[in-house]
């Protein structure tokens, strides 16, 4: 791969932003021939022309427009590295944080408030999705840390269990008899709403019916957990829901929890990161997450760390 320098990228961006080699040279404190040389060297390294002169001044070619995007991102990353290293705060700059719907609805607001109070220079980029999608993003190193509700499978992940999470069938009060066990044959006579496959909740329902040798009924699909919970509260459908998301409604009697036969296994909420991204910053985030969980309806899990060099069983 041909090499190019930061000075060349800065010269290119200065010309693009000002539309002039002369103004770019003045801005960077160098001569105009130096700017021209850096641009030629960058074009040579990339193997394509980046700039062209027109009546209105210098402008980007089609390749130059694409190069500008990458150059701006490169300079931004380098500036962020400098700020983070010089500040002494491991949590400054940007943090790409992923969260499953369960963690997002139960713990994420408190986690973000604490991060903002303790690390005001930190900028959080959130991704809220199901655990399957978050696994893929971690594997592609597009997330720094993620909070999932099932164990990761894949090479070189660091995983820490944070909390136990009960899941159960819920309905609006009066829809079903809470004193009677809920079986797949009885559940299929009601409208069931769930998250889309391959979400953990969809998998739980599919496996529950399969274990009882009952054909999976038609399921209503909702891709937003908050809306799904609301549908249960309104009596539109029954659903498998993490119990922590309906704790208040259960206490008030607005909804009822049903004992499932076969029983539903408890979930574990994990913090996961790619082993290459592990550092003090992630350790601080996990420490804060544990404190948040301790004040939530979730049951804290013992602090253990697991490195997964190969595939492990998925829920």
UniProtKB/TrEMBL annotation:
GO molecular function list: DNA-binding transcription factor activity; transcription cis-regulatory region binding
UniProt keyword terms in alphabetical order: DNA-binding, Transcription, Transcription regulation
Chain ranges of the HTH lysR-type domain: 4-61
SUPFAM superfamilies reported for this sequence: Periplasmic binding protein-like II (SSF53850), Winged helix' DNA-binding domain (SSF46785)
InterPro entries for this protein: LysR_HTH_N, LysR_subst-bd, WH-like_DNA-bd_sf, WH_DNA-bd_sf
Family designation: Belongs to the LysR transcriptional regulatory family.
UniProt cross-references to PANTHER family, sorted A to Z: HTH-TYPE TRANSCRIPTIONAL REGULATOR, TRANSCRIPTIONAL REGULATORY PROTEIN
Full protein name: DNA-binding transcriptional regulator, LysR family
